[in-house]
Amino acid sequence: MEMEEEEEEDEQEKMAHAEVLELWQAGLARLVRDPLLCDLPAQVTAEEISSQVALEYGQAMTVRVRRADAPEAPMPVVVVQNASVLDLKKAIQRFVQLKQEREGGIQHISWKYVWRTYSLSFFGEKLDDDQKKLREYGIRNRDEVTFVKKLRK
Q: Where in the numbering of this chain does the Ubiquitin-like domain appear (predicted)?
């Protein structure tokens, strides 16, 4: 008898979770209809919403990241105003991971390999100090940073 009650409680918890998830998705869908947030995808995350709001309030900036060997459009990566190079790298990783999940692409990327093989560059200057602020390199809102392959020594 106790087993049946536990199974019933588990089923109710699952149902409650599904209902909460559905309500959450409906709320997010209403949020992205707002003119300030209309650029966001339908399956938006809370992090993307907070980044967009921070952009609107001038607390964040968009850095466009382009691969040197690819003609595609640059990735618009959002970071806080006083972000370091490491913050930008982490934001790039999150951006690419979300993009891959939404498009059904490669699920695992070895970022250790990526950062060992490629570096970021701004007007020919490599962003090689992870602790240095983007501002110190002269990077401002809507500036473009490039992925360049590291040369072997």
A: 61-153
Question: Is residue 79 situated within a structural domain?
Answer: yes
For residue 94, tell me if it sits in a domain.
yes
pLDDT in tens, 63-77: 999 988 878 889 999
Q: Please give the tally of structural domains in the chain.
A: 1
Structural domain contains residue 36: no
Pull the structure tokens for residue 13: 């918890």
6 occurs within a structural domain: no
Give first-to-last CA distance, the chain, whole Å: 71
pTM of the model: 0.73
CA distances from 137 to 32, 127, 140, 143 (A): 34, 8, 9, 11
Give per-residue burial for 25-49: e unless 16+ CB within 10 Å, then b.
Answer: eeebeebbeeeebeebeeebeeebb
Domain that includes residue 125, residue range: 50-149
